[in-house]
Amino acid sequence: MIVQIIYRKFTPEIKKLVNRLRRIRAVEDIIFSKGERNMLIVDGLVAWKEGDGDPMEGFYDIRIIKSMLEINPEVSA
Predict the structure, then answer these.
(1) Which one of 39, 45, 60, 77 has the lowest number of neighbouring Cβ atoms within 10 Å?
(2) Nearest-CA neighbor of 59 among 34, 15, 28, 27?
(3) Pairing verdict, β 2-7 and 29-34
(4) Could you tell me if residue 52 is left (phi over 0), alpha (psi between -120 and 50 degrees) or otherwise beta?
(5) pTM higher than 0.90, yes or no?
(6) Which long-range contacts (CB under 8 A, 24 or more apart) does 40-47 make?
(7) Per-domain residue ranges for the chain?
(8) Alpha-carbon torsion 59, 65, 67, 70, what sign?
(9) What is the architecture of the domain spanning 2-70?
(10) Distance CA 18, CA 70 (A)
(11) pLDDT, tens only, 9-18
């Protein structure tokens, strides 16, 4: 997974988020961009925006969505 962190100001909360993301094996790259508001984008999908709660919940939501797309359930008629 490729994670992009868009930040307005690099705060201790952003640093804590980066440290938590680096511990996850599925995260291949972390890209940093300066922007107008803090955001977390995972594989092109917005996982979290500033003021939406815990950014790790958004990350895991995207991870669940990605794994659900990989499952091919067999449908019988």
Answers:
(1) 77
(2) 27
(3) parallel
(4) alpha
(5) no
(6) 40/3, 40/4, 40/5, 40/6, 41/3, 41/4, 41/5, 41/6, 42/1, 42/2, 42/3, 42/4, 43/1, 43/2
(7) 2-70
(8) negative
(9) 3-Layer(aba) Sandwich (3.40)
(10) 27
(11) 999 999 999 9
Q: The tokens of 31 are what?
A: 């890209």
Is residue 46 within 8 Å of residue 39, measured between CB atoms? yes
Q: What token pair was written down for 12? A: 């201790």
Per-residue pLDDT band at 76 (split at 50, 70, 90): low
